[in-house]
TrEMBL record:
<dbReference type="InterPro" id="IPR029063">
    <property type="entry name" value="SAM-dependent_MTases_sf"/>
</dbReference>
<protein>
    <submittedName>
        <fullName>Methyltransferase domain-containing protein</fullName>
    </submittedName>
</protein>
<dbReference type="InterPro" id="IPR008715">
    <property type="entry name" value="SAM-MeTfrase_NodS-like"/>
</dbReference>
<dbReference type="GO" id="GO:0009312">
    <property type="term" value="P:oligosaccharide biosynthetic process"/>
</dbReference>
<dbReference type="GO" id="GO:0008757">
    <property type="term" value="F:S-adenosylmethionine-dependent methyltransferase activity"/>
</dbReference>
<dbReference type="GO" id="GO:0032259">
    <property type="term" value="P:methylation"/>
</dbReference>
<dbReference type="Pfam" id="PF05401">
    <property type="entry name" value="NodS"/>
</dbReference>
<keyword id="KW-0489">Methyltransferase</keyword>
<keyword id="KW-0808">Transferase</keyword>
Length: 202
């Protein structure tokens, strides 16, 4: 199976019918049971290059209120936090949340919340939203719901980072971004080896 995901201290009641599905939740939980860095975010040259490109697309900030959906173990959130006056990082896997809290423990402006998008999105008005390796875990209708939330709530940049290879989900990365574009309009796309970054300006 081909699995990839991108997210930081408040517990929310996750609705299991939303992102991800039960089999995805079980798979991700199994990966995090074996390692708190299942995709080698801390050590992989590929991930380091992707994070570098992502931060370049995000820009220097400062951002008043940023949201990362799907923060994983917090490696990228740790790099993003100094650019934010407030950063809310969100994930739905308890082991990933614990790792993200450790990664951000010395960043008082950052908090990690437990929840699944789009059902548990917090009541923010973010001027930056980061979706790194998470969009294709949503069903098409959930991407539509997320897009509407972004349309209503986001007041700055939306950054979508996606693996461009095959997935075992209904949509691959490019397909998931295309679905989001139906609500947000076309973004600016930058293509790299194995991934793409799409920037939507709200």
């Amino acid at each position: 199976m081909s699995w990839r995901t991108g997210a930081s201290v408040i517990s929310l009641n996750i609705r299991r019918s939303s992102l991800p599905s039960r089999d995805v939740l079980d798979h991700l939980a199994g990966l995090y049971a074996a390692s708190d860095d299942p995709w080698q975010h801390r050590t992989s040259p590929y991930e380091a290059e992707k994070f570098k490109r992502t931060l370049a697309a995000i820009g220097p900030g400062p951002f008043a209120e940023a949201l990362e959906i799907g923060c994983g173990n917090g490696t990228l959130a740790r790099l993003l936090a100094p650019r934010c006056r407030r950063l809310v990082a969100m994930d739905c896997i308890p082991a990933a949340i614990r790792a993200a809290r450790r990664a951000l423990s010395d960043q008082p402006q950052a908090e990690v919340i437990e929840g699944a998008a789009p059902a548990d999105l917090p009541p923010l008005r973010p001027d930056l939203v980061l979706l790194s390796e998470v969009l294709y875990f949503l069903q098409p209708a959930e991407i539509d719901q997320l897009g509407q939330w972004l349309l209503d709530r986001a007041r700055g940049r939306v950054i979508a980072v996606n693996w461009t290879g095959p997935t075992d989900e209904p949509l691959d990365g490019p397909g998931a971004v295309a679905r989001l574009s139906r609500t947000l309009g076309e973004g600016v796309t930058s293509a790299f080896h194995g991934f793409r970054i799409d920037v939507f300006s709200r």
